[in-house]
Amino acid sequence: MKFTYKNKLTAMALLTLIMVTACTSDFEEINTNPNGPVTIPSYLHLPTMIEATADLTYSTFNGGDMGECWVQHWGKVQYNDEERYSPRVTSINDWWDLLYARPLMDAKKMYLAAIEEENDQAKGVALVWQTYVYSLLTDTFGDIPYGDALSAEEGITLPKYDKQQDIYPAMVDTLASALNYLSGDGTLPATQDLMYAGSVDKWKKFANSLRIRLLMRMSAKVDVSSELQSIVNSGIYFKSNADNAQLNFLGQNPNANPIWNTVIFTNRLEWRINESLVTVMEGLDDPRLPVYAQPNDDGDIRGCAPGIEEPTVNGYDYANTSMLGEYFLKPSTPAIFMDFTELNFLLAEAAKKGIITGGDAAAEAFYNAGITASFDTYNGFKNEDGTTVALLPSIYLAQSGVAYNPSNALLQIGTQKWIALYCQGVEAWTEWRRTKIPALSPALNPISISEVPSRYLYPSKEQSLNSANYTEAVQAMGGDELTTRVWWMQ
Protein backbone atom coordinates (compact mmCIF):
# COMPACT_ATOMS: atom_id res chain seq x y z
CA MET A 1 0.00 0.00 0.00
CA LYS A 2 1.21 3.41 -0.93
CA PHE A 3 2.13 5.53 2.14
CA THR A 4 0.48 8.90 1.39
CA TYR A 5 1.11 12.30 2.95
CA LYS A 6 -2.16 11.88 4.90
CA ASN A 7 -0.97 8.56 6.27
CA LYS A 8 2.27 10.21 7.37
CA LEU A 9 0.42 12.89 9.33
CA THR A 10 -1.76 10.29 11.02
CA ALA A 11 1.27 8.22 11.99
CA MET A 12 3.08 11.25 13.35
CA ALA A 13 0.05 12.21 15.43
CA LEU A 14 -0.19 8.73 16.90
CA LEU A 15 3.56 8.74 17.68
CA THR A 16 3.26 12.12 19.36
CA LEU A 17 0.36 10.88 21.49
CA ILE A 18 2.36 7.85 22.58
CA MET A 19 5.37 10.02 23.48
CA VAL A 20 3.27 12.49 25.48
CA THR A 21 1.61 9.65 27.35
CA ALA A 22 5.00 8.05 28.06
CA CYS A 23 6.46 11.33 29.30
CA THR A 24 3.66 11.93 31.77
CA SER A 25 3.09 8.45 33.13
CA ASP A 26 5.55 7.08 35.73
CA PHE A 27 8.54 8.73 33.97
CA GLU A 28 10.76 8.91 37.06
CA GLU A 29 10.04 5.34 38.07
CA ILE A 30 10.68 3.95 34.60
CA ASN A 31 13.83 6.00 33.94
CA THR A 32 15.56 5.54 37.29
CA ASN A 33 18.37 3.01 37.45
CA PRO A 34 17.75 0.99 40.64
CA ASN A 35 21.44 0.01 40.72
CA GLY A 36 22.78 3.57 40.43
CA PRO A 37 22.66 5.65 43.66
CA VAL A 38 21.51 9.24 43.34
CA THR A 39 24.10 10.36 45.92
CA ILE A 40 27.42 8.79 46.82
CA PRO A 41 27.56 7.55 50.43
CA SER A 42 29.78 9.71 52.59
CA TYR A 43 32.21 6.93 53.45
CA LEU A 44 33.17 6.38 49.80
CA HIS A 45 34.97 9.74 49.75
CA LEU A 46 37.21 8.77 52.66
CA PRO A 47 39.79 6.53 50.91
CA THR A 48 40.38 8.89 48.01
CA MET A 49 40.91 11.97 50.17
CA ILE A 50 43.46 10.20 52.35
CA GLU A 51 45.31 8.67 49.41
CA ALA A 52 45.41 11.90 47.41
CA THR A 53 46.89 13.77 50.38
CA ALA A 54 49.55 11.13 50.96
CA ASP A 55 50.53 11.04 47.30
CA LEU A 56 51.16 14.79 47.32
CA THR A 57 52.87 15.15 50.69
CA TYR A 58 55.21 12.25 49.96
CA SER A 59 56.01 13.27 46.40
CA THR A 60 59.75 13.74 45.96
CA PHE A 61 58.99 16.86 43.90
CA ASN A 62 56.92 18.47 46.66
CA GLY A 63 57.69 17.14 50.13
CA GLY A 64 61.14 16.13 48.91
CA ASP A 65 62.55 19.02 46.88
CA MET A 66 60.57 21.75 48.67
CA GLY A 67 60.57 20.22 52.13
CA GLU A 68 63.26 17.70 52.95
CA CYS A 69 65.89 19.49 50.88
CA TRP A 70 65.04 22.94 52.29
CA VAL A 71 65.21 21.65 55.87
CA GLN A 72 68.51 19.90 54.99
CA HIS A 73 67.46 16.35 55.69
CA TRP A 74 68.08 15.46 52.06
CA GLY A 75 70.54 16.70 49.48
CA LYS A 76 70.79 16.06 45.76
CA VAL A 77 73.74 15.10 43.63
CA GLN A 78 71.98 16.11 40.42
CA TYR A 79 69.04 18.27 39.26
CA ASN A 80 69.24 20.36 42.44
CA ASP A 81 67.81 23.73 41.37
CA GLU A 82 64.96 23.35 43.86
CA GLU A 83 67.41 22.65 46.67
CA ARG A 84 69.13 25.90 45.69
CA TYR A 85 65.83 27.78 46.09
CA SER A 86 64.62 27.82 42.50
CA PRO A 87 61.42 25.75 42.76
CA ARG A 88 59.51 24.38 39.80
CA VAL A 89 56.41 26.34 38.91
CA THR A 90 54.62 23.12 37.94
CA SER A 91 55.25 21.56 41.37
CA ILE A 92 53.88 24.60 43.16
CA ASN A 93 50.86 24.72 40.85
CA ASP A 94 50.19 21.03 41.45
CA TRP A 95 50.44 21.44 45.22
CA TRP A 96 47.80 24.19 45.17
CA ASP A 97 45.53 22.78 42.47
CA LEU A 98 45.48 19.17 43.60
CA LEU A 99 45.05 19.81 47.33
CA TYR A 100 42.03 21.97 46.58
CA ALA A 101 40.58 19.77 43.83
CA ARG A 102 41.09 16.36 45.41
CA PRO A 103 41.23 15.92 49.20
CA LEU A 104 39.51 19.21 50.03
CA MET A 105 36.74 18.65 47.51
CA ASP A 106 36.34 15.06 48.69
CA ALA A 107 36.12 16.28 52.29
CA LYS A 108 33.40 18.75 51.31
CA LYS A 109 31.45 16.07 49.45
CA MET A 110 31.83 13.70 52.39
CA TYR A 111 30.52 16.34 54.77
CA LEU A 112 27.51 17.21 52.59
CA ALA A 113 26.64 13.55 52.10
CA ALA A 114 26.94 12.97 55.84
CA ILE A 115 24.44 15.78 56.46
CA GLU A 116 21.93 13.99 54.22
CA GLU A 117 22.62 10.73 56.06
CA GLU A 118 22.44 12.38 59.49
CA ASN A 119 25.82 10.74 60.11
CA ASP A 120 27.62 12.91 62.65
CA GLN A 121 30.70 10.71 62.84
CA ALA A 122 31.32 11.02 59.11
CA LYS A 123 30.84 14.79 59.39
CA GLY A 124 33.49 14.87 62.11
CA VAL A 125 36.02 12.92 60.05
CA ALA A 126 35.42 15.16 57.02
CA LEU A 127 36.08 18.28 59.11
CA VAL A 128 39.26 16.83 60.62
CA TRP A 129 40.65 16.05 57.19
CA GLN A 130 39.54 19.37 55.75
CA THR A 131 41.43 21.13 58.53
CA TYR A 132 44.55 19.07 58.02
CA VAL A 133 44.67 19.87 54.29
CA TYR A 134 43.92 23.55 54.79
CA SER A 135 46.80 23.66 57.29
CA LEU A 136 49.13 22.33 54.59
CA LEU A 137 48.02 25.06 52.20
CA THR A 138 48.18 28.00 54.59
CA ASP A 139 51.50 26.85 56.07
CA THR A 140 53.09 26.73 52.64
CA PHE A 141 51.52 29.85 51.08
CA GLY A 142 50.28 32.05 53.93
CA ASP A 143 46.99 33.79 53.08
CA ILE A 144 44.79 31.50 50.97
CA PRO A 145 41.15 31.11 49.85
CA TYR A 146 39.40 29.56 52.84
CA GLY A 147 35.88 30.81 53.45
CA ASP A 148 35.17 31.23 49.72
CA ALA A 149 37.06 28.14 48.59
CA LEU A 150 35.34 25.25 46.79
CA SER A 151 32.25 27.39 46.13
CA ALA A 152 32.09 27.44 42.33
CA GLU A 153 28.73 25.66 42.38
CA GLU A 154 27.43 28.44 44.62
CA GLY A 155 28.59 31.02 42.09
CA ILE A 156 31.88 32.02 43.72
CA THR A 157 34.44 31.47 40.98
CA LEU A 158 36.91 34.11 42.14
CA PRO A 159 37.48 33.29 45.82
CA LYS A 160 38.88 35.88 48.19
CA TYR A 161 41.99 35.12 50.20
CA ASP A 162 41.64 34.96 53.97
CA LYS A 163 44.43 36.12 56.26
CA GLN A 164 46.39 33.38 57.97
CA GLN A 165 45.80 35.00 61.37
CA ASP A 166 42.07 34.48 60.76
CA ILE A 167 42.40 31.01 59.24
CA TYR A 168 44.28 29.52 62.19
CA PRO A 169 41.66 30.23 64.89
CA ALA A 170 38.98 29.07 62.44
CA MET A 171 40.79 25.76 61.92
CA VAL A 172 41.14 25.22 65.67
CA ASP A 173 37.41 25.92 66.11
CA THR A 174 36.57 23.53 63.28
CA LEU A 175 38.48 20.77 65.04
CA ALA A 176 36.51 21.45 68.20
CA SER A 177 33.30 21.09 66.18
CA ALA A 178 34.64 17.89 64.64
CA LEU A 179 35.15 16.42 68.10
CA ASN A 180 31.53 17.11 68.96
CA TYR A 181 30.37 15.38 65.80
CA LEU A 182 32.66 12.42 66.44
CA SER A 183 30.90 11.95 69.77
CA GLY A 184 27.54 11.80 68.02
CA ASP A 185 25.61 9.16 66.11
CA GLY A 186 26.64 7.61 62.83
CA THR A 187 28.80 4.98 61.22
CA LEU A 188 32.29 4.81 59.79
CA PRO A 189 32.88 1.56 57.87
CA ALA A 190 36.22 0.01 58.79
CA THR A 191 36.89 -1.13 55.23
CA GLN A 192 36.75 2.45 53.90
CA ASP A 193 38.79 4.05 56.69
CA LEU A 194 42.34 3.46 55.49
CA MET A 195 43.82 5.17 58.53
CA TYR A 196 41.92 4.02 61.61
CA ALA A 197 39.69 1.16 60.39
CA GLY A 198 36.58 2.88 61.67
CA SER A 199 37.88 3.74 65.16
CA VAL A 200 36.15 6.97 66.15
CA ASP A 201 38.25 7.16 69.33
CA LYS A 202 41.43 7.35 67.26
CA TRP A 203 39.95 10.04 65.03
CA LYS A 204 39.24 12.02 68.21
CA LYS A 205 42.87 11.62 69.28
CA PHE A 206 44.02 12.84 65.88
CA ALA A 207 41.68 15.84 66.01
CA ASN A 208 43.06 16.95 69.38
CA SER A 209 46.67 16.18 68.46
CA LEU A 210 46.25 18.32 65.36
CA ARG A 211 44.76 21.06 67.54
CA ILE A 212 47.89 20.91 69.69
CA ARG A 213 50.06 21.29 66.58
CA LEU A 214 48.09 24.28 65.33
CA LEU A 215 47.97 25.95 68.74
CA MET A 216 51.72 25.59 69.20
CA ARG A 217 52.31 26.94 65.71
CA MET A 218 50.53 30.17 66.55
CA SER A 219 51.69 30.30 70.19
CA ALA A 220 54.21 33.06 69.50
CA LYS A 221 51.38 35.31 68.27
CA VAL A 222 48.40 34.36 70.43
CA ASP A 223 47.92 33.20 74.03
CA VAL A 224 46.91 29.57 73.59
CA SER A 225 47.61 28.33 77.12
CA SER A 226 43.99 27.90 78.26
CA GLU A 227 42.86 25.88 75.24
CA LEU A 228 46.06 23.84 75.12
CA GLN A 229 45.82 22.99 78.81
CA SER A 230 42.20 21.90 78.40
CA ILE A 231 43.22 19.44 75.68
CA VAL A 232 46.00 18.04 77.86
CA ASN A 233 43.57 17.73 80.77
CA SER A 234 41.13 15.82 78.56
CA GLY A 235 43.68 13.10 77.90
CA ILE A 236 42.30 12.71 74.37
CA TYR A 237 45.38 12.80 72.15
CA PHE A 238 47.97 10.35 70.81
CA LYS A 239 49.17 7.96 73.51
CA SER A 240 51.40 5.66 71.46
CA ASN A 241 52.61 5.00 67.93
CA ALA A 242 49.48 2.90 67.45
CA ASP A 243 47.53 6.18 67.33
CA ASN A 244 49.64 7.75 64.57
CA ALA A 245 47.76 9.40 61.72
CA GLN A 246 49.30 7.56 58.79
CA LEU A 247 48.49 5.73 55.58
CA ASN A 248 50.03 2.28 55.25
CA PHE A 249 50.91 1.99 51.60
CA LEU A 250 50.68 -1.34 49.79
CA GLY A 251 53.61 -3.18 48.30
CA GLN A 252 53.09 -2.25 44.67
CA ASN A 253 51.89 0.51 42.36
CA PRO A 254 49.57 2.36 42.13
CA ASN A 255 49.25 2.14 45.92
CA ALA A 256 52.93 2.26 46.83
CA ASN A 257 54.89 4.91 48.70
CA PRO A 258 55.74 7.74 46.23
CA ILE A 259 59.34 7.96 47.49
CA TRP A 260 59.90 4.30 46.60
CA ASN A 261 58.11 4.83 43.30
CA THR A 262 60.41 7.68 42.25
CA VAL A 263 63.74 6.56 43.72
CA ILE A 264 63.58 2.79 43.25
CA PHE A 265 60.89 2.01 40.70
CA THR A 266 61.86 4.77 38.26
CA ASN A 267 65.55 4.70 39.28
CA ARG A 268 65.86 8.38 40.25
CA LEU A 269 68.75 8.07 42.69
CA GLU A 270 69.78 11.71 43.09
CA TRP A 271 68.20 12.19 46.52
CA ARG A 272 70.74 11.58 49.30
CA ILE A 273 71.03 12.22 53.01
CA ASN A 274 72.19 15.76 53.71
CA GLU A 275 75.57 16.62 55.15
CA SER A 276 73.93 18.89 57.75
CA LEU A 277 71.88 16.04 59.20
CA VAL A 278 74.83 13.65 59.21
CA THR A 279 76.96 16.18 61.10
CA VAL A 280 74.35 16.70 63.83
CA MET A 281 73.59 12.99 64.23
CA GLU A 282 77.23 12.01 64.33
CA GLY A 283 77.86 14.68 66.94
CA LEU A 284 75.18 13.08 69.12
CA ASP A 285 76.34 9.52 68.38
CA ASP A 286 72.80 8.89 67.16
CA PRO A 287 72.16 5.20 66.38
CA ARG A 288 69.35 6.14 63.96
CA LEU A 289 71.90 7.35 61.40
CA PRO A 290 72.42 3.89 59.80
CA VAL A 291 68.61 3.67 59.55
CA TYR A 292 68.36 7.07 57.88
CA ALA A 293 71.10 6.40 55.32
CA GLN A 294 72.95 3.57 53.60
CA PRO A 295 76.75 3.34 53.36
CA ASN A 296 78.38 4.79 50.25
CA ASP A 297 80.69 2.76 48.04
CA ASP A 298 83.47 3.15 50.62
CA GLY A 299 81.30 1.79 53.41
CA ASP A 300 80.81 5.20 55.07
CA ILE A 301 77.76 7.35 55.64
CA ARG A 302 78.45 10.62 53.86
CA GLY A 303 75.95 13.36 53.17
CA CYS A 304 75.65 15.67 50.21
CA ALA A 305 76.48 19.33 50.82
CA PRO A 306 73.30 21.46 50.96
CA GLY A 307 72.60 23.21 47.69
CA ILE A 308 76.05 23.05 46.19
CA GLU A 309 76.43 23.96 42.52
CA GLU A 310 77.22 21.02 40.22
CA PRO A 311 77.58 18.46 43.04
CA THR A 312 79.21 15.75 40.94
CA VAL A 313 81.87 18.19 39.77
CA ASN A 314 82.46 19.54 43.27
CA GLY A 315 83.05 16.30 45.14
CA TYR A 316 79.57 14.87 45.77
CA ASP A 317 78.55 12.09 43.42
CA TYR A 318 76.49 8.92 43.34
CA ALA A 319 79.35 6.74 44.57
CA ASN A 320 80.68 8.74 47.51
CA THR A 321 77.39 9.93 49.05
CA SER A 322 74.80 7.90 50.92
CA MET A 323 71.39 6.92 49.65
CA LEU A 324 68.33 7.22 51.87
CA GLY A 325 67.95 4.34 54.32
CA GLU A 326 66.29 1.09 53.31
CA TYR A 327 63.31 1.72 55.62
CA PHE A 328 62.36 4.83 53.64
CA LEU A 329 62.74 3.15 50.26
CA LYS A 330 60.21 0.39 50.76
CA PRO A 331 56.95 0.50 48.78
CA SER A 332 54.94 -0.15 51.97
CA THR A 333 56.58 2.47 54.20
CA PRO A 334 53.71 4.55 55.60
CA ALA A 335 52.97 8.19 54.92
CA ILE A 336 52.94 10.04 58.24
CA PHE A 337 50.48 12.91 58.61
CA MET A 338 51.17 13.35 62.32
CA ASP A 339 52.69 11.00 64.86
CA PHE A 340 53.15 10.39 68.56
CA THR A 341 56.79 11.42 68.32
CA GLU A 342 56.02 14.94 67.09
CA LEU A 343 53.21 15.37 69.59
CA ASN A 344 55.55 14.64 72.50
CA PHE A 345 58.09 17.20 71.36
CA LEU A 346 55.34 19.82 70.96
CA LEU A 347 54.12 19.13 74.50
CA ALA A 348 57.70 19.17 75.81
CA GLU A 349 58.15 22.63 74.32
CA ALA A 350 54.82 23.78 75.74
CA ALA A 351 55.72 22.57 79.22
CA LYS A 352 59.17 24.14 79.13
CA LYS A 353 57.72 27.48 78.03
CA GLY A 354 55.00 27.37 80.68
CA ILE A 355 52.17 27.23 78.15
CA ILE A 356 50.96 24.12 79.96
CA THR A 357 51.64 23.11 83.53
CA GLY A 358 54.36 20.76 84.72
CA GLY A 359 57.53 22.70 84.12
CA ASP A 360 60.80 20.87 83.53
CA ALA A 361 59.53 17.60 84.99
CA ALA A 362 56.75 17.38 82.42
CA ALA A 363 58.98 18.70 79.65
CA GLU A 364 61.58 16.02 80.36
CA ALA A 365 58.96 13.27 80.39
CA PHE A 366 57.52 14.37 77.05
CA TYR A 367 61.03 14.82 75.59
CA ASN A 368 62.07 11.30 76.60
CA ALA A 369 58.81 9.88 75.27
CA GLY A 370 59.37 11.61 71.92
CA ILE A 371 62.82 10.12 71.46
CA THR A 372 61.61 6.69 72.57
CA ALA A 373 58.70 6.80 70.13
CA SER A 374 61.04 7.74 67.30
CA PHE A 375 63.32 4.79 68.10
CA ASP A 376 60.34 2.45 68.33
CA THR A 377 59.26 3.46 64.82
CA TYR A 378 62.25 1.63 63.35
CA ASN A 379 62.83 -1.15 65.87
CA GLY A 380 62.19 -4.53 64.28
CA PHE A 381 62.65 -3.40 60.68
CA LYS A 382 64.52 -6.02 58.67
CA ASN A 383 67.19 -4.83 56.25
CA GLU A 384 67.86 -6.58 52.97
CA ASP A 385 71.00 -8.19 54.42
CA GLY A 386 68.85 -9.92 57.04
CA THR A 387 69.81 -7.75 59.99
CA THR A 388 67.12 -6.35 62.22
CA VAL A 389 67.10 -2.78 63.47
CA ALA A 390 67.49 -2.74 67.26
CA LEU A 391 67.71 0.69 68.86
CA LEU A 392 68.00 1.30 72.61
CA PRO A 393 66.63 4.71 73.57
CA SER A 394 67.74 4.36 77.19
CA ILE A 395 71.41 4.33 76.16
CA TYR A 396 70.95 7.30 73.87
CA LEU A 397 69.04 9.26 76.51
CA ALA A 398 71.84 8.69 79.01
CA GLN A 399 74.39 10.53 76.86
CA SER A 400 75.46 13.92 78.17
CA GLY A 401 74.53 15.72 74.95
CA VAL A 402 71.10 14.09 74.80
CA ALA A 403 69.96 13.81 78.43
CA TYR A 404 67.43 16.54 79.23
CA ASN A 405 69.13 19.68 80.49
CA PRO A 406 66.89 22.51 81.74
CA SER A 407 69.46 25.13 80.77
CA ASN A 408 69.25 24.38 77.03
CA ALA A 409 66.12 22.26 76.85
CA LEU A 410 64.44 24.18 74.02
CA LEU A 411 67.49 23.63 71.82
CA GLN A 412 67.47 19.93 72.67
CA ILE A 413 63.74 19.57 72.03
CA GLY A 414 63.93 21.40 68.71
CA THR A 415 66.97 19.45 67.55
CA GLN A 416 65.47 16.08 68.41
CA LYS A 417 62.21 17.03 66.72
CA TRP A 418 64.14 18.06 63.59
CA ILE A 419 65.93 14.69 63.58
CA ALA A 420 62.73 12.73 64.21
CA LEU A 421 60.80 14.43 61.40
CA TYR A 422 63.15 12.92 58.82
CA CYS A 423 61.29 12.15 55.59
CA GLN A 424 58.22 14.10 56.70
CA GLY A 425 58.99 16.81 54.14
CA VAL A 426 56.70 19.79 54.43
CA GLU A 427 56.03 19.29 58.16
CA ALA A 428 59.76 19.13 58.93
CA TRP A 429 60.39 22.35 56.99
CA THR A 430 57.36 24.04 58.55
CA GLU A 431 58.40 23.27 62.12
CA TRP A 432 61.94 24.42 61.39
CA ARG A 433 60.60 27.72 60.05
CA ARG A 434 58.74 28.18 63.33
CA THR A 435 61.57 27.32 65.74
CA LYS A 436 64.71 27.85 63.59
CA ILE A 437 66.22 24.91 65.51
CA PRO A 438 68.83 23.74 64.75
CA ALA A 439 70.62 26.69 63.20
CA LEU A 440 70.99 25.96 59.48
CA SER A 441 73.15 27.84 57.02
CA PRO A 442 71.52 28.48 53.64
CA ALA A 443 72.33 26.51 50.51
CA LEU A 444 75.99 26.90 49.54
CA ASN A 445 75.20 28.17 46.06
CA PRO A 446 71.68 29.60 46.06
CA ILE A 447 70.14 30.64 42.76
CA SER A 448 67.61 33.31 43.66
CA ILE A 449 67.62 34.07 47.39
CA SER A 450 70.22 33.80 50.13
CA GLU A 451 68.15 32.23 52.93
CA VAL A 452 66.04 29.14 53.53
CA PRO A 453 62.63 29.85 51.92
CA SER A 454 59.81 30.98 54.20
CA ARG A 455 56.96 29.96 51.88
CA TYR A 456 55.94 28.87 48.40
CA LEU A 457 55.18 31.42 45.70
CA TYR A 458 51.53 31.69 44.78
CA PRO A 459 50.61 29.63 41.68
CA SER A 460 51.31 31.52 38.48
CA LYS A 461 47.77 31.28 37.14
CA GLU A 462 46.30 33.05 40.18
CA GLN A 463 47.78 36.27 38.80
CA SER A 464 45.70 35.97 35.65
CA LEU A 465 42.59 34.06 36.70
CA ASN A 466 42.01 35.64 40.11
CA SER A 467 44.08 38.80 39.78
CA ALA A 468 42.15 41.20 42.02
CA ASN A 469 42.07 38.83 44.98
CA TYR A 470 45.65 37.75 44.33
CA THR A 471 46.83 41.37 44.34
CA GLU A 472 44.97 42.07 47.58
CA ALA A 473 46.55 39.01 49.22
CA VAL A 474 50.04 39.97 48.09
CA GLN A 475 49.61 43.45 49.54
CA ALA A 476 48.35 42.00 52.83
CA MET A 477 51.22 39.50 52.98
CA GLY A 478 53.84 42.13 52.15
CA GLY A 479 54.88 40.43 48.92
CA ASP A 480 54.82 37.19 46.97
CA GLU A 481 58.40 36.06 47.43
CA LEU A 482 60.06 32.95 48.79
CA THR A 483 61.31 35.19 51.61
CA THR A 484 57.90 36.66 52.53
CA ARG A 485 57.12 35.63 56.10
CA VAL A 486 53.90 33.85 56.94
CA TRP A 487 51.97 35.15 59.95
CA TRP A 488 53.05 32.64 62.60
CA MET A 489 56.77 32.98 61.90
CA GLN A 490 58.71 34.83 64.59
Fold topology:
Blueprint: H1 5-24, H2 27-30, H3 46-57, H4 60-68, E1 74-76, H5 89-117, H6 120-141, E2 144-145, E3 161-162, H7 164-182, H8 200-217, H9 225-234, E4 245-247, H10 258-265, E5 271-273, H11 275-283, H12 289-292, E6 335-338, H13 340-353, H14 359-378, H15 393-397, H16 409-420, H17 425-435, H18 462-465, H19 467-477
Helix pairs in contact: 3-5, 4-17, 5-6, 6-7, 6-8, 7-8, 8-13, 13-14, 13-16, 14-16
The termini sit apart by 94 Å
Helix and strand succession? Answer: HHHHEHHEEHHHEHEHHEHHHHHHH
CATH hierarchy class name of the domain at 40-231 and 453-490: Mainly Alpha
Give the low-confidence spans. 1-32
Provide the helix percentage: 40-55%
Q: How would you sum up the major sheet?
A: 2 strands, antiparallel
Strand content: under 5%
Cα Rg:
26 Å
How would you classify the helix and strand content by structural class? mainly alpha
Shape: globular
Q: What is the CATH T-level topology of the domain at 40-231 and 453-490?
A: Serine Threonine Protein Phosphatase 5, Tetratricopeptide repeat
What does this protein structure show overall?
The radius of gyration is 26 Å and the shape is globular. With 490 residues, the chain is mainly alpha-helical. It contains 19 helices and 6 strands. Among the domains are: 40-231 and 453-490, Serine Threonine Protein Phosphatase 5, Tetratricopeptide repeat, CATH 1.25.40; 270-322, no CATH class. The longest helix has 29 residues, at 89-117.
